Amino acid sequence: MIRTMIVAVFLSLWTLVLGPPLILFTLATKSADLMYWVGVKGVAFITRVAGMRVQVEGRENIPPGTCMFAANHTSNADAAAIVRAIPRRLAIFGRKSLFDIPIVGLAFRLAKFVPVDRGNRDAALASVKQAVEYMKTGSSFLVYPEGTRSPDGRLSRFKKGSFVMAIEAGVPVVPVTCAGAHLIMKKKSLIIHPGKVTVRFGKPIDASAFTIEQRDDLARQVHDAIAAELPAEQKPAI
Q: What pTM was computed for the model?
């Protein structure tokens, strides 16, 4: 619980102290790069303080140019590990409620993060369309095709929407395997445990070679690539 309190206090101070000047700088320069990388450095620092060690493998598999990173999702801790492991600017989806938080919401929008309202189908479709447009204009994207965090750390079935995005944008999909994050911070728990998280990048899969009708095939290939690199206790149950 002490680690959780340290993280909460640090993130609050980080947001309040650095958020406003970074937002003003972003508005003045029309570039969110500095704000993004300062945020990533802050996440990297606080995760180390919280006792999370991140091992990164397979960075050489990340292709040049825009791509979609597709990762398994087990914990609030895996986003911190994955984002700091990816050596480029990213856009991501986020719960709509996060965009309503002062400073945070504005920073997210300036960074081209995309709000998602899962209870509103039309809004969700608009979010997917926005993500595709961002990728077409050069923004790499991080997605969690399972749609929600795994309750037990095992890889679940993938939803198809992410792969429709990749096909429409014509970008390669990089399978990202995240192992151990579910032990750092369990689902529905705020307690942070020290430990090691391994982030492994697999060989990219060219989504432009698939049609919309073949989205299931693309999803299956990415799912299999991630499953193959997971430890036994995180592989799919079936």
A: 0.90
Residues 115/95, Cβ–Cβ less than 8 Å: yes
Ordered DSSP codes for 77-134: HHHHHHHHHS-S-EEEEEEGGGGGSTTHHHHHHHTT-EEE-TT-HHHHHHHHHHHHHH
Asked if residue 55 lies in contact with residue 198, where contact means CB atoms within 8 angstroms, the answer is yes
Q: Which of 83, 99, 103 is nearest to 91 (CA)?
A: 83
Q: What would the pLDDT profile of 176-209 be if each residue is shown by its tens digit? A: 999 999 999 887 777 888 899 999 999 999 999 9
Looking at residue 238, its pLDDT comes to 67
The total number of residues written for the chain in this structure: 238
Contact 14, 41 (CB under 8 A): no
Q: In terms of DSSP bridges, do strands 140-143 and 114-116 run parallel, antiparallel, or are they unpaired?
A: unpaired
- Residues 6+ away with beta carbon under 8 Å from 107: 19, 22, 23, 26, 35, 39
Which among 37, 33, 223 has a CA at the least distance from the CA of 138? 33
Domains of the chain: 54-234 (3.40.1130.10)
Alpha helices in 30-75 (DSSP H): 33-49
pLDDT band at 102 (very low <50, low <70, confident <90, very high): confident
Nearest to 184 by CA among 60, 87, 53: 53
User: How many Å apart are CA 134 and CA 42, to the nearest integer?
Assistant: 25
CB 73 within 8 A of CB 144: yes
DSSP secondary structure letter of residue 159: P
Structure tokens at 111: 């960074």
